[in-house]
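lol ok so funny story. i was supposed to be doing the assay writeup but got distracted and ended up predicting the structure for this chain instead. priorities right. anyway since i did it might as well share w the group, maybe its usefull for someone
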Amino acid sequence: MMENRKEVDKKIGEQFVDMLLEDIRSGDIDIDVMKKMARPMHPHVNGVLNAKNKGFLQPLDVFLYMIDKWFQTVLYDLEDGEGFGKLISILEDKNVGLRDL
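and the output, tada:
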């Protein structure tokens, strides 16, 4: 469960958060893609990914931990809606490769 869901929705946009979660559920975003996303989000997000990705949790659960850490380290300080642009930049990064999402 995402501890900061309401705040994350404000910073990124509820529909976009829902779309990301559905893409993870459907396998369009897998753990390998999340690994590529984690470091540009914040080094601590990458640390959470490494700590939680031990095979016990589903990718969706790992991602929820990642988003919570991203909120705690980056998003909390942004204006509402400003996180959307940051996340789009991460997704469109050539190393992540989710331009079509």
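DSSP finds six helices and no strands in the chain. The mean pLDDT is 92.
back to the writeup now i swear
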